[in-house]
Each structure stands twice: as C-alpha cells, then as structure tokens.
Amino acid sequence: MLHTRKIIAVALAAALLAPAAKAEIAFDVIGGSEISFEGLVQADGNWFSNDIVDQNGQALNGKDTEFELRRAELVFKGKGPGAINWVVGHDLKAKKWLDVNAKYTIGGNSNNYVQIGQYKQPHSLEELTSTKHNDFIAKASITNGMTVARRLGVAAGTGDQNWSLMGSWFTRELTRNGNHGVGYGVRGTFAPINAGGNVLHLGLSYISRDTDGDALRMRVRPMADLATAYLVDTGNVTNVDSAATTGLEAMYISGPFKLQGEYMQTKVSGVTSARDFDTDGGYVSALWNVTGEKFGYKGGTPSLGLPDSPAAGMFQIGLRYDTINLNDGSFAGTPPKGTGVLGGEQDTWTLGANWYWRSNFKFALNYNKVTSSKFRTNVGNVNDDPSSITARAQIYW
After folding, report:
1. Is the pLDDT assigned to residue 4 strictly greater than 90?
2. What is the pTM of this model?
3. Could you give the CA distance from residue 364 to residue 6 in angstroms, rounded to a whole number?
4. Following DSSP, what letter does each residue of 86-155 receive, concatenated?
5. Hey, which residues does 374 pair with through a beta bridge?
6. Contacts of the segment 288-292: beta carbons below 8 A, 24+ positions apart
7. Residues pairing with 232 in the sheet
8. Minimal CA–CA distance to 213: which of 235, 189, 186, 236?
9. How many CA atoms lie within 13 A of 374 on its CB side?
10. Which range is the signal sequence, renumbered to this chain (predicted)?
C-alpha cells in the first residue's frame, strides 16, 4: 500500500508540473537528444454481480468488489541525435518493460522507418492505439486473448497519411519469464476517405509465432480486468507447434463520432494434426465525443487531442458488443464427454462513459453484461451470465 501511495504522489506532482498544452515533461538536450519524461497511472475499482462462478473467488477475501492500482508506467523518450528516436518505458505495477527501442526515420518522413528493440507488434487496431485513450476500461476479448503485444525484434514501416505497411520479425519479451517464441507479423492499412474530419480506415494483419511444442492456453476475463475468474478458458493445450492469427479491422470517423470493429481468427497447429484447433471472435464499438472534440488519424490509428474547454473537460459515451468463441470440438454421451478444445463462448455488451479533465486526468465508468457458455465434463454446457461495474481514475503526462 505504501508503494502504491508513493507512485500516486509522484504521478500527481508530475501531472501538476506538466505544461497545459504539452503532456510530456521536457528534461534537457544530452548528446544531441531532446529527452522528455512521460507517465501513466491508472487505479481501478470493480463491482461484481455473479451468476454461477464467483468472479472474484480466487481473491479469497469473500468480497464482490476489488480495488487495485492497474498501471504505473514511466517512460523516457529521446528525439535525436539526427534521425534517431528512442524510448525506454517500464511499468512499476506489473514489473515489466514496455517500449524499449530505437527508431531510425528515413528521408525525414516519420512513416518510413526501421526499428529495433521491444515494441508493439503490427497487429490489432485496439492494441496499437494508445492505452491512455482506451475507449473502454477493458480491452476487447480478442485483443486480450489473441494478440501478440510487445516483443523484442526488428521492424520496418512505410506509408503516408492514407496508407501504411509494417513488417516485423520478433522473439521473446524483454521482461524475464515473459512470453517467448520466434515469429513474424505484417499489417497494412488503407484510408480511402481521409479529409474534412471524415476517415474510413481498413486494415489487414497476420501474425504467426512458434511455441516449440509447449502448451498454449487461451482465456479471457468477463470484461473486468480485476476479476480472478475466467468464464471461457481452453486450459493448457499441450504439444502445440505454432499459432497464427489473421485480423480484419475497419473504422469510420466523422468529427466527434467513431465507429470501429475488428475480427480475428487464430489457427493453432499441433505437433500432430489431432492437436489442431481454430478460434475466432470480434467486436463492434461506437464512441461519441458529446462535447464536440474531433478525432484525429495518423499512422493507421485514431488519435485524440485535449479538451476544447480544459476546465469543463471532454465527455464521451460509448457502446460495444464483444464476442469470442474458444470452442473447436464436440461432446456426446450420457454423461457427456468432450473431444477437441471446448473453451467456451462469451458475449458481452459494454456501456461506457469517459471524462477527460484538463490535460492530465481521465475518469471512466463501464457497465458490462456478460453471457457465456462452457462445457463441463459429465454435465454438458453450463450458462453463466454475470455483470459488473468497472471504474477507473487515470493520471497521465
């Protein structure tokens, strides 16, 4: 608790010191590099309404509520020397490295570059969008369950304001005992409409990673990040050789309104064909800046500026439908026995509101209604339909 209080105190001081029109704190120019300091601190509260499974059961505290520091990210960035930009970030809460890389810009165009180190892989519109501007508190099921996030590797990208292409070869995470496995990924985007505050974005990505015969487990929480239960879960599937995910994405922006959706399919290849299985899922969401601020678009992802009126802040409301299917098998008999992978299906409606106040604060409130179904040996499919209210207070600079 004392460690958490110190982090929040440092975050408040940094946020209050940050200039109103500029998020990061400028340090100095050292060795030809303009160094700045950024941070993100998020504190969450979850209130659970259970159906069958206790969403907070593994906390072993007998409560249907949970409060926790979610993220405490500190990031140093450098511009220069020359065409080189670098970043070193660490999450003190999760005790893991974030972006730690250097990027060389080619021809003075930020869209043309070569990158080395740890970075987000070219996959998923939601994953590549800045965490501080998440539309909803919990990311979509496919984003949490199917994407490959930050890994060590080498990447190259090119594009302009209407299209982008990025390719990457990667290995393990920089953090000790993190995710591992060699892989590669590619993402391409195209915006046939990008003018006058209106954007139509289309994207396609493919990412493949080796698991070297290890076990693979796919599972997602019931749209509450502090929940300890997973209503859909494949369990450890052994003797898996590789996993490949194809992603389709689309987004439409019209001034203060944003509509976006993604669909993903993951094909898992086993050491033998008997271990093969497929999963899929997707989401569609709508977000409206009630106070009128317009969304931006750069590098194949949406962007969000400061409130037009810092004292009043920027207010958003949003709605999302989310689905994931971790079943690729069947069951029969009395009592029923299953074959293949029967991880379950989960659908969720999320209603959310966000308030960005001044330059450094955000408050979010979500209501999540989940419907799920999962096979249990000797029982059959069991439906579990809980709900939750989640809240977040955020400081960033």
Report:
1. no
2. 0.91
3. 23
4. EEEEEETTTTEEEEEEEEEEETTEEEEEEEEEEEE-S--HHHHS-GGG-SSSSPPHHHHHH---EEEEEE
5. 382
6. 288/256, 288/257, 288/258, 288/316, 288/317, 288/318, 289/256, 289/257, 289/314, 289/315, 289/316, 290/256, 290/315, 290/316, 290/317, 291/256, 291/315, 292/255, 292/256
7. 220
8. 236
9. 22
10. 1-23
* Contact (CB, 8 A) for 64 and 48: yes
CA distances to 122, 366, 372, 384 from 322, in Å: 22, 14, 12, 16
Q: Rounded to whole angstroms, what are the CA distances from 176 to 31, 97, 179, 320?
A: 30, 9, 9, 35
Stretch (H or E) spanning 318: strand 314-332
Q: What mean pLDDT comes out for the span 357-364?
A: 95
Q: Token pair for residue 233?
A: 């879960």
Residue 136 corresponds to which tokens in the numbers above?
């909803």
Cα distance between residue 392 and residue 68, in whole Å: 10
Q: Which two tokens stand for residue 283?
A: 């989401």
Strand partners, 363: 355, 393
329: three-class secondary structure by DSSP:
strand
For residue 82, the cross-strand partners are none
CA-based radius of gyration for the chain:
22
C-alpha 17, offset from chain centre: 28
For residue 295, CA distances in Å to 2, 101, 262, 286 come to: 38, 28, 19, 13
Give mean pLDDT, residues 245-257: 98
pLDDT for residue 18 is more than 80: no
Local structure of 348: helix, strand or coil: strand
The whole-angstrom separation of Cα 294 and Cα 379 is 51
The domains of the chain, with CATH numbers, are 2-25+41-75+137-146+187-396 (2.40.160.10)
Query: How far apart are the C-alpha atoms of 37 and 76, rounded to whole Å?
Result: 5
Reading the block at residue 153, the tokens are: 């590797």
pLDDT in tens, 38-84: 999 999 999 999 999 999 988 777 789 999 999 999 999 999 999 99
